[in-house]
Amino acid sequence: MDKIIVGIDNIPSDGLKKEWGLSLYIEHGGKKILLDTGGSDLFLRNYAKLGIDISDVDYGVLSHAHCDRANGIPAFFEHNGKAKFYVSEKTAPDCYGRLLFITFYCGIPKTLLDDHADRIVKVSDVYKISDGVFIVPHKNGGYPDIGRKGHMLRKTKAGFVPDDLCHEQSLVLETGKGLVILNSCSHSGPGIVIDEVRKAFPDQHIYGYLGGLHLWNSSERDIREVAHDLKAARLEYIGTGHCTKNRAFGILKEELGDKIEQFRTGLVIEF
Fold first, then answer.
1. Which end of the chain, N or C, is surrounded by fewer C-beta atoms within 10 Å?
2. DSSP 151-212
3. What residues form DSSP beta bridges with 34?
4. What is the pLDDT of residues 84-115, one digit of tens each?
5. Residues of 136-161 as b/e, b for ≥16 C-beta within 10 angstroms?
6. The pTM is what?
């Protein structure tokens, strides 16, 4: 049986701590996988309380190059001496955000790629990590309009440009119920992510979608459009948290009913 445990999310439970970030621990086919580390080393304490030994993790995956997913990676390497960490080949310390007139850095630890070059694997295409476990990066080009709308930037030699989200990637599991997609923020939108996974696995049923949906400051219209995309995909299970937040989750719940579940720290999902 496949198991996914939420180690970091915005909603705490069972004595576990919260932060603005997301980390998922996965057991699949005898392998142990960590998707993202949250925004600090807090994930270590939460997983320890859950009885999970981070030193046993076989593979790490970074969903995208933002600090609330990557800041715990150095701590992960300190406590795990074997696992490679898989990142998009487009990952670089160049992600920024803009709030009113203030531009701020929100990327990976700036020396991460150099400090841990022997542990990091850069992914450019559909990539098989182990039996039934794949990474699917964006292959249809970038999405600068989405970055522009979300006030997300990348710093280039020519100055700041809208983030085209080329550093975002999905983790895909083959389960007994069908494919399960894990995309921790879904910046490009779950409809785009699902379409990319369908193209990579054209003959397989997609059972579930897990991750944040980046709807925390979206209009009701935009939230209902995401719900429409999820309905159209005919998913049987959706788990979401972090950057979805409570208001958007309530609207999604109206639209999707029992098919959707809200993350909290310590939540266990089994397939």
1. N
2. TEEEEETTEEEE---TT-EEEEEEETTEEEEE-SS-TT-HHHHHHHHHHHSTTS-EEEEES-
3. 25, 60
4. 999 999 999 999 999 988 999 999 999 999 99
5. bbbeeebbbebbeebebbbbeeeeee
6. 0.96
Residue pLDDT, tens place only, 6-19: 999 999 998 999 99
Tell me, which fold does domain 3-270 have in CATH?
Metallo-beta-lactamase; Chain A (3.60.15)
Separation between Cα atoms, residue 94 and residue 72, nearest integer Å: 18
Which backbone phi and psi does 263 adopt, to 5 degrees? Answer: -65, 155
Q: In angstroms, how far is the first alpha carbon of the chain from the final one? A: 6
Neighbours of 51 (CB within 10 A): 7
Please state which of the ranges 20-34, 135-149, 228-242 shows the lowest mean pLDDT.
135-149
Look-up of token digits 């991460």: 112
Output phi, psi for 90, to 5 deg.
Answer: -85, 0
Written as six digits, the tokens of 253 are 């719940």
Integer Cα distance of 58 and 56 in angstroms: 6
Token readout for 41 is 């080393």
Name residue, tokens 């579940």. Answer: 261
**Residue 229 to residues 38, 131, 199, 251: CA-CA distances in angstroms?**
27, 29, 16, 14
pLDDT digits (tens, 9 = 90+) for 185-217: 999 999 999 999 999 999 999 999 999 999 998
The answer to whether the beta carbons of residues 3 and 26 sit under 8 Å apart is yes
Contact assessment for residue 29 and residue 1, using Cβ atoms and an 8 Å cutoff: no
Residue 98's CB: how many other CB atoms inside 10 A?
Answer: 14
Please state, rounded to an integer, the average pLDDT across all residues of the chain: 96
Helix/strand/coil for 27: strand
* Dist. CA 66–CA 185, nearest whole Å: 10
Both tokens of residue 30?
Answer: 């005898």
